[in-house]
Amino acid sequence: MVEDKEVQEGKIFAILAYLSVLCLVPLLLKRDNKFAFYHGKQGLVIFIGEVAAGIVAWVPLLGWVVAPIASLLFLVLSLIGIIQAAIGNYWKCPVVSDIAGKIKI
After folding, report:
1. What are the tens digits of pLDDT across the range 29-71?
2. Domain residues of the chain, as ranges?
3. Residue 93: left if φ>0, alpha if ψ -120 to 50, beta else—which one?
4. Which of helix, strand or coil describes residue 19?
């Protein structure tokens, strides 16, 4: 498969997008790269979910059950996102991509 120049140039930034707060790197530094920006927006939604799971973790009982499950889910989504970005795919993450598509930055 021949990758276009935009995917090749944005690949590292797209990978960074799924590493917690580093999702801001492609959103701020690679706004002109559609590939990196696409993954950056998905990474931002996952990061916000991670923060929300951390806040929920403080709620007795409910948080102790929900937060670890949510954290594991976000970890899996991030790992899949990293793999998809590394192979150059515009991966549409379930639910996350719908929310990310509505974000105007």
Report:
1. 999 999 999 999 999 999 999 999 999 999 999 899 999 999 9
2. 5-93
3. beta
4. coil
Place of tokens 């889910």: 73
Q: Is the pLDDT of residue 99 over 60?
A: yes
- Two tokens at 44? 């931002």
**24-49: b or e for each residue (b if 16 or more CB lie within 10 Å)?**
ebbbeebeebebbbbbbbbbbbbbeb
The encoded tokens of residue 46 equal: 């996952």
Quote the tokens at residue 91: 């991966």
Q: Taking the complete model, does pTM exceed 0.85, yes or no?
A: yes
Q: Give the residue among 53, 29, 52, 51 at the shortest CA–CA distance from 40.
A: 29
